[in-house]
Amino acid sequence: MITPSPALPIAVPLVAAAFLAGLRKFLRRWLADLIATATAAANLWLCAALLRGSWHSNIVYWFGNWFPRGRIVVGIGFEVDPVGAGLATLACLLTLLGFIYSWRITDSGRDLFQPLMLIFMAAMCGFAMTADLFNLFVFFELMSTAAFALCGLKTHEPAPLQGAFNFAVTNTVGAFLILTGIALVYAVTGALNMAQIGFLLGSRHDLLVIAAAAFLCSGFLIKAAIAPFHFWLPDAHSVAPTPVCVLFSGLMVELGAFAVLRMTSVMFGQSLLQPHSAFRSTLLLLGSLTVVWGGLMCFAEHHLKRVLAFSTISHGGAMLLGVAIGTPAAITGWLTYLFAHAMAKAGLFFTAGILLHRLQSMSEPQLFKRGRSLRFTAALWLLGGIALAALPPFGLSNGEDLIESATHAHALHLWVTLMFFFTSAMTGAAVLRVGMRVFFGLGDAGPADRAAQIDEAPDGPEEQHRIPARMFLPAALCIALSAAPACIPGFGRWFFNAAHRFLAQSLYIARIYAQPTHYVLPSAPHSDLGSTLMHGAIAVVCALLLASWAVFHLALPRGFRGATHLEGPMFPLRKLQSGHPGDYVVWCMVGFVLLGGCLFLLP
Amino acid sequence: MIVFRYLILLLVGITALGVVRTRDTTCQVLALSFYGLLLAVMFFVFQAPDVALSQIAVGAVALPLMVMLALARMKHSSEQQKKKQEAK
Amino acid sequence: MSQIAHIFPFLVAGWVFLCGLYGIATSRHLVHTVISLAVVQTSTYVLLLNIGFRTGGAAPVFADISPGITTVDPIVQALMLTDVVVEATVMALLLAMVVKAYEKAGTLSPDDLRLMRG
Amino acid sequence: MSGAWRIRIFFLAAAGFACLYFLAVRNLPPWGHYRGPYGDVMATSSVFQRHTTDVVNAIDYDYRGFDTLGEEFILFTSVLGVMLLLRDPEKNKGISRTGNMGQATRFGAAGSYAALLVFGLYMTTHGQLTPGGGFQGGVILATASMLIYIAEDFRVFKRITSHPIVEALDALGAAGYAAIGLSAFLFSAPFLTNWMPLGKTGDVFSSGTIAAISACVGLEVTAAFLMLGYTYLEEIVSETGEGG
Asked: For residue D193, which of A267, C7, C97, D189 is within the disulfide window of CB 3.0 to 4.6 Å?
């Protein structure tokens, strides 16, 4: 099997998107769907082939045939490593499933849905594979722009526009933070290739490098929806069409953390990561804050997509803990977690989309008892909830276990374990609570708050009495795949190889300059099934208890009715979610100062 | 020349504050247009003719024009709605 | 004093960035928010341009000067050029959202548009 | 958050931002002393390697052409987004009555239209030689047709700008760039390799694919800005019956 050119996964969907958009007035709907689906499938194949080709050594590709001249990189390069290629493959897979799900359904975009999705996919592929800092920014912008447009796809209601506007404003501010960071880095190194920058910066550790890192990281952390940068995410998710939510939650948000890790490991590998611990502690701090914030808010929400959106925030924080620890074992865990989470979350969003399609609502109080006849949907939803609660064999448990085992210090180990337990229990509880109310009609309808009443036009034209199989297929496949890391024996070793290569700064730089590299893969860590099972079981039990507490709290004695408080509209964290773009931008600034200040002041 | 460059930078700083402090949208569009032109002049002075050209095209003409068009469209649609309400 | 003179242009860029953010934070009109965002963007131009600037450098166009002469940095100019495109188009998209929101909700104040609260 | 609190927190954060930024900028190379090396390599080599005299365009369309491809698709995407949000196929019917503008205005607008058209075309085709290029030329070309609107000939303006052909041209420009990039595969060279003959420095047809790409970008930008302009004016232009 020959390895295709890494330019193809970018160029092919872009050409297809331009074709579909230019001829949209002349193409039939089924033909447009067919072209889009075929393009996504072809791209999946291309990315998978690249993943395979990058297995033994990174693929380096110079656009325009501009090879580096001595130490100076002249053109734009791609360096495809297994992590980048793997994320690109995941992007293509999720897009393909999204197209299958929305086959001749999502129609509110006046035939612009497919080209926008294809551009979004191409941007994610480019973002994952590029080795050039400014190119990374360009793909960041392309991804954002496509995301803003996709977010405004349903223009029947005022709410989508507002969500899309907040999303666009905060992420654009993030883009400018990144650009400022790029300018600062360029000023001291005179280079834009990340490997060259890493080589030139060496172990330089002064205020400029720290500030540049703070600018770049806070820009990408806005995309990664880490507290306090996260406010845009629930607004955007609660208004986007289902396949778009799948891509947002499944991959786009995680790509933010990926970019942070890629930059810090390649560019600041020796200046920021190696001898100093400030960066790690800062990320641990922000990650923990995100886990708690997202978890609490997830439990407090009653709009199905907002529940899932806040759970993404909480899980994103948990993944950032893995990034913060940053040893090969932790990154292996991060990758496992990312894959399993993407799949579980995609499955849940598809299932929520089925509910929207069938019952025309996303509000928990309105859906109360109405899903009792939907057995298969109920099974998918509950399995998704259990997957989020990280019960083996779902891959999140393996990821957790690997990240926990990578912490050697006792206090840190305890803290990380606690954080993972919290995110599993809270998000699992919220999903299970929704399931108990909607599919089993247990307890009461739950409080109706304002956010729960955000109306959403369903993906399809009118109320549907049956659910086509093509909607179930992606959901079921996703839930099944989220168990793959544990069930398929090769996965652990693959992820370990990918993580190890991802972190090796010298290897990355050497490949850019076409120097010979010697690479010996150390033996992979083994996870302990017993303790994983125990952790998962405890988390699921706690999630069930929490969910039952929320559902049956009216039957409890007065002293035990705290859930009303946590669920109710008076919950203090909810007030911060104000829907005002000015607030969100101010919080982004606070986050930037927090991040930069910690990097400056911590040892 | 150096003094001129510092002056123009100072002017950019002051105008930027002026643009965000202007609360009336129509005035703000004019301020933005002026600011765009000022930036274009700065680009010329700082030896960037390519960027200056596109800044004139975009920052001083296209972007303010777009804002004006958007404002015109909003004004138009609110008038339409008024008419409809009166008709009812 | 000379130290301030050496970093003054960079400080102007930072100042413009903060001005734009101030505009967004205090905005009472969505079009104003969009324009403030455009101001934030211009700060990146100012920064990039000054980073690549060289006292006495010529413009990087060799139509009438001979190759080999000292020029200012063409890379930052290329980056800015593409950046200008981004500005225009992203602002167009944001304005379209504002127009549509106005047509649907009838208000332009970010304070009244809080459907997403909580 | 109430307005007063937002501003208080803003000023606190702004103070922190200013401190961080000031401390960082102090360590930059002093202003006016750009150290290179990336830009200098470009400035010295592009005339010989690519037969272009405008280095910035050589970088944008050749050395770092892949970035520009991305940027072009950003433009493409946001125009799609604007159309998605604002175009209403129902309203695309009538044309409003036009008030009469003075004859002099019309004449002036028509005159400037011709001048701008020539200027825009010149700029699009001479990007590799003098400052300018597809992007700037495209914006000028599109602005020129706004003059038709000012000359109050809505009928012509609408006929030109609302046609599906404009959309197709927009897509053609975007796809054309990618296609030129892909065409390098025919010569088994990497994506976006400049394979066309480079010509004589200073000639309009010099510098190989740079000129072709510049033309594609010009096409796309013209069509994109035409569509943007029309989309905002649609509601005003397409009044049926009583409007105007």
From this structure: D189
